[in-house]
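User: Hi! I have a protein structure encoded as tokens and I'd like to know what sequence might fold into it. I'm fairly new to this, so please keep things simple.
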């Protein structure tokens, strides 16, 4: 099975008071084109599909049109909501499921084997993650905070290069 993993679309986001919907439509078209060209079976949309818990009609149209293109091309889609998406995605679950678009409105909580969110401080987060790792549990951390990543005894880093990206395993 071939997947195309996308994340953090933030459709509806403005930058310096300027709408980015035209750019977001272009990116959405490119995602669908890549998925078709690469014969993808399932497109993953991981978190923060919208930039607001109450996205504009135009932002919703961009996402719905993209999902319609994906479904129309015979591909499935899986959407996992982020902190902006919960209510909006919950409302779409039943309809979307009939189109092979599967929605989990929010990530699983840590007691369900899912996401743990720590907002108190980096040191609290690092301590909690090291306790979990010590329990022989496989855990994953996605962070843009380098200081937190540096405290993890083993990690996979994705680094940008001129030709795309490369994966690097770091330990100790």
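Assistant: Happy to help. Inverse folding works backwards from shape to sequence: for each of the 172 positions I chose a residue that suits the local structure. Here it is:
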């Amino acid at each position: 099975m071939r997947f195309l993993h996308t994340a953090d679309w933030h459709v509806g986001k403005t930058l310096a008071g300027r709408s980015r919907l035209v750019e977001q439509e272009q990116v959405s078209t490119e995602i669908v084109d890549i998925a078709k060209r690469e014969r993808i079976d399932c497109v993953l949309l991981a978190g923060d599909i919208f930039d607001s818990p109450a996205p504009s009609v135009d932002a919703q149209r961009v996402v719905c049109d993209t999902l319609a293109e994906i479904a129309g091309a015979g591909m499935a889609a899986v959407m996992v909501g982020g902190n902006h998406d919960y209510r909006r995605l919950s409302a779409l679950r039943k309809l979307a499921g009939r189109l092979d678009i599967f929605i989990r409105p929010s990530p699983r909580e840590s007691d369900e084997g899912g996401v743990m969110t720590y907002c108190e401080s980096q040191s609290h987060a690092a301590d909690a993650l090291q306790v979990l790792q010590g329990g022989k549990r496989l855990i994953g951390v996605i962070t843009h905070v380098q200081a937190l990543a540096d405290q993890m005894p083993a990690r996979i880093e994705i680094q940008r290069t001129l030709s795309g990206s490369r994966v690097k395993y770091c330990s100790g």
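A useful reference point when you look it over: The two ends are 34 Å apart (CA to CA). Feel free to ask if any position seems puzzling.
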